[in-house]
Amino acid sequence: MGHLDKNALNSTNRDQGETNHAGLISRRKLLASLGAAGLATIAAGALPGIPGTGTAYADVLNDSVADIPALLAYSRGTNTCVVVADPLRGGIFSWASSGTPNNGTVFAAQGGGVWNRQFNGAFNVCWFGAKSLADSTSAIQAAFNAITRPGCVYFPAGDYYISEQIILPAQVVSVRGEGQYVTYIRARPTNKILHAMFLGTNGDTMEFNSLSFDGEGNADSAIFYDNLNHTLFNSLFITGTSVTGLHVNGWNNKFINCQIVANAGNGIECYGTADSNNNVSLLCSEIYANGGIGMRIGNGMNVNVTNSTIEHNAVAGLIVYDMKNFNVVDCYFERNGKSGFTYTDAQNPSGVNIKSDIHLLGSGGTFIGINSAQPLECVKISGIQWTPLNSAGVNNGGINNTSFVFSNYLDKVTIENVQCYDSSKADALLAIWGNGLTSVVKGPVSIRGNSLSTVQLKGTDNGTAVNGGHYIDILDTRSKNYYDPNFPGYQRIAITSGNLLKSQQRFCGYPAFELTNGTEWWGHPIDAAAQFPELKGKLIWFGAWVKSASGNDVRLVTLDGAGSHGDTSTPGGNDNWKFKSILIPVGSGVTSIVCAFQKLGSGANGQVAFPVMGLVGASLDRFEIGSDVPFRASSSPNTGYWEAGETVRHSNPTAGGDLGWVCTASGSPGTWKGYGKINV
Question: Start and end of every Rhamnogalacturonase A/B/Epimerase-like pectate lyase domain (predicted)?
Answer without folding.
Answer: 123-338
